[in-house]
Design brief:
Layout (H helix, E strand, L loop, with lengths): L3 E5 L3 H12 L3 E5 L11 E2 L8 E2 L6 H5 L1 H6 L1 H4 L2 E2 L3 E7 L3 E6 L2 H7 L4 H13 L1 H9 L9 H14 L4 H4 L2 H11 L9 H13 L8 E2 L4 H13 L3 E3 L20 E4 L14 H9 L5 E9 L15 E4 L3 H12 L9 E4 L14 E9 L8 H11 L3 H4 E7 L1 H7 L16 H4 L16 E3 L13 H15 L5 H5 L1
């Protein structure tokens, strides 16, 4: 009889773990609380008939460079769209700073600031796979590419401190601020610089800031297809509230339990040691996201015409304005002029909506458990850079931070990053350990974004947890080539 593996959560990390274990010969069963699979990579009808919205993430640069997804062959399983412009930062006066897929075009568009931008980003883009290896390493390990790590660290210091304010032109500062704000942490900060530079480097790689044609759901569907092809199964509508009530098998016989969940679910295990429980309780979740999806009767009427070429748009104005908004959130308040992370997928993927209809996906950062409906604040900020936007709205659907935590139990108080994104919690994610995916409870592993390498649609935390479990069982290190080669 095959050993059993139960995976709680069908987000990309849970499914990456499930696929890996199924290919290793385990009888894998995935439990998902929602009525549909995918977690943060789901696509659904939220507004009007025929209009498809990404429920969680929408653009996935890190999925294209992920070692797990490259071994899995994701690019051969789904169709990716690489846009002409990776992302845009509209500015007042009908201008915008654009991170074009073509680095030379980006540098030219940034004028006098272009040369400094090239020096910052080009070495990282050119060595993106070494950078992925560096950022995927735990800080407790010796990096595999020390020179890349040194160059990345120097750039973190430049962009994550006030030094960057004199090193770059205003337009470059604004462009960088928009991407650094993805980290949902006070600005400037080294943690935000690490995540932002990692994303910015992807803008000028061959894959760019890609998105799946038809929606993020394609990623989850590809993983589930492979899981089922190797004998695994998925059960939706199964909300695991306590591990004490879950019959997941016999750890003494080699059965496994992997959790693509927030770490605090581990506190419900009846045999959790006190020291480990204290560490899990000390793990901190961060600020939240409140999201709104719009169905529009035409494209967003951007004042700067080139913004329509970028599926991803960062709305917040200048660096100072973006920083002020994010620091207001970090202080526990709602900014009057928030940073808005917006995606307009239909400018490159008309399959998302009927002819003539467009989609806008947008969220703002808010304090944990906020009940604010973000619709009006988002509308005002879009209208600032796209006069007439309000008249284009045919329907909208909002999810507050408090509602998000009920829809997806892993998003504690609306935190979509699996824990506060700080340098401390890069080391302690969720505990200080060379093997943070393994728990002290036999056969139990954590496989979520609360473990290294952290947030992002990479599948890597799930793969790392599955690899740890398989290595623990056999005593022989397991590689991606062993399962997918």
């Amino acid at each position: 009889m095959a050993r059993r593996a139960t995976v709680v959560g069908s987000g990309p990390n849970g499914l990456a773990a499930a696929v890996s274990l199924a290919r290793a010969g385990y009888d894998v069963h995935v439990l998902e609380a929602s009525s549909s699979i995918g977690g943060g990579v789901r696509t659904a009808g939220l507004t009007l008939p025929g209009v498809r919205h990404d429920v969680g993430s929408a653009v996935h640069p890190a999925a294209r460079s992920s070692p797990f997804f490259r071994a899995f062959g994701l690019s051969e399983r789904i169709e990716w769209i690489t846009p002409e412009a990776s992302y845009a930062q509209p500015l007042d006066g009908g201008r915008a700073a654009i991170a074009w897929h073509d680095l030379d075009r980006t540098v030219d568009g940034l004028g006098a600031g272009g040369a400094a931008y090239r020096r910052l980003i080009e070495p990282l883009s050119r060595r993106i796979h070494e950078l992925v290896a560096v950022t995927g390493d735990q800080l407790l390990r010796v990096p595999r590419h020390p020179l890349v790590m040194a160059g990345f660290g120097a750039r973190m210091l430049l962009t994550g401190t006030r030094a960057g304010r004199t090193a770059f032109s205003d337009d470059v500062q604004a462009l960088l601020a928009g991407v650094l704000a993805h980290g949902n942490t006070p600005l400037p900060s080294l943690a935000a610089a690490a995540s932002g530079l990692f994303l910015a480097a992807h803008a000028h790689t061959p894959e760019g800031w890609s998105l799946p044609r038809g929606g993020a759901q394609r990623i989850a569907d590809a993983l589930v297809d492979d899981l089922r092809a190797h004998g695994g199964s998925v059960e939706t509508g199964s909300h695991v509230r306590s591990l004490a009530d879950l019959d997941w098998g016999d750890p003494g016989a080699g059965d496994l339990l992997l959790l693509d969940t927030a770490p605090r679910l581990l506190l419900t295990h009846p045999d959790i040691p006190d020291r480990y429980a204290r560490a899990i309780r000390a793990y901190r979740h961060g600020s939240a996201a409140a999201k709104v999806d719009f169905a529009l009767d035409g494209p967003v009427p951007w004042a700067a015409a080139d913004v329509e070429r970028a599926p991803t748009v960062h709305l917040g104005g200048t660096r100072a304005e973006v920083e002020a908004g994010e620091n207001t959130v970090a202080a526990g308040r709602i900014p009057g002029h928030p940073y808005v992370l917006a995606v307009q997928p239909t400018v490159v993927d008309p399959s998302r909506a009927p002819d003539g209809t467009h989609v806008l996906w947008a969220y703002i950062h808010v304090p944990p458990a906020s009940t604010l409906d973000p619709t009006e604040l988002v509308t005002q900020q879009v209208e600032r850079f796209a006069p007439g936007f309000r008249r284009r709205v045919r329907a909208s659907h909002a999810v507050t931070a408090a509602q998000r935590s009920r829809v997806n139990p892993s998003d504690i108080d609306g935190d979509i990053l699996g824990g506060a994104f700080t340098l401390t919690q890069a080391v302690r994610r969720p505990v200080v350990s060379r093997t943070p995916w393994r728990t002290p409870m036999p056969g139990v592993y954590l496989a979520s974004a609360s473990t290294p390498p952290g947030p992002g649609v990479t599948g890597m935390p799930g793969w790392r947890a599955a690899r740890q479990a398989l290595t623990d069982r056999t005593g022989v290190p397991v590689s991606l080539d062993d399962l997918f080669g």
